[in-house]
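ugh ok fine here u go
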Amino acid sequence: MNGRTFYTGQNALAVEKGPGRPDRVIIILTAALVFLGALMIYSSTSVITYAMQQKQITTPLFYFKRHLITIFLALLAASVAYRIRTDLLGKLSPVLLFLSLALLLLVFTRLGISAGGARRWLRLWPSTFQPSELVKLSMVIFLAWYLSRDFFDPDNLPIALAPLGVMAVFQAVFLKQPDFGGALTLGVITICMLFLAGVRLRYLAGLLLLALPLAYYLAHEPYRLRRITSFLDPWAEARGDGFQLVQSFIALGRGGFGGVGLGRSMQKLSFLPEMHTDFIFSIIGEELGFMGATLVVLAFAGFFLRSTRIAGRMGDKYRQLLAYGIALMIALPAMVNFGVVTGLLPTKGLPLPFISYGGSSLIVNLMAVGILLRLSKGEAMADARQDKFRETIERKKARRAIYGAGL
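structure:
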């Protein structure tokens, strides 16, 4: 299939059977990032700022305690996801996708919550939930299932590009909220998975060309256009739309090579907005310096490479695409977050996976890790089963050579 080889048949069954352990590297990297996130959330919110007082927050442990509860819930969600058979997830993917769409539409009802000019959250006691995070995982599972079906033909244009219609429905709702970053992330993940499934490059290139007028129109919305102009020269609007980016530069500059030390950030004192969510990487750069920030980037790079290695060794196309999709789902927002904080990309509200404060993102991402660990366990099972099968064949060939064809 366009030069890509996938294994089917008995190898697919081997993914769910036999001995095997979840990938330790993924576990270590994820645990390290989650621990660092808790540490930096405590550090960045340990002082009561004016913004916190405006929200009637009077204890410095408010965000930290809530984040610890979120970690506990996320670990439970990851444990449940780990125990679900991956083939069952694929069969249930249309249902998960429909459920995600229903939750996404509920934000426009009385259950929805507005913040920062956007309506993206549901009021679920005792906290809130952002359905767009669940949409990404549901879409990854659905794409992996759809693109691995027998009826899927990458050379058949209507069948190959049918998932784009599903993507467009979700993107329309995202833009209504508005959530341009979520729409863009979902689009990139979908295009990448179509490419990995063998859809012809000219189809995807033509699609991108057709999408350029829409992208141009969306970019010329007044508030998005201001973000672009402030990104090009943030110092010209240091007290306006470029304020957040300038303060991020100051935080990274103060950190230098080794950082100012944990808890000693000055930018968290009401200078840097969203310092515990979208711009927490700036606080990492200030307190832990260039070395600490580099280690975080390398941790995400290691997570992505390890995930792609797991994907490359899967026993069938569905699980291979599922692992690739999870790798993209976590690595892409991290890359965008790094780019925004360092001024390489226009300002966009995307949390840093595993690290930023935000229950929805952490719960869904750890669920994705649980699925990935299930796949990595299956990878070891498949390899062991294939080795045993090859050994049996070689033994039979040797016995035939010695005792003759009659045996």
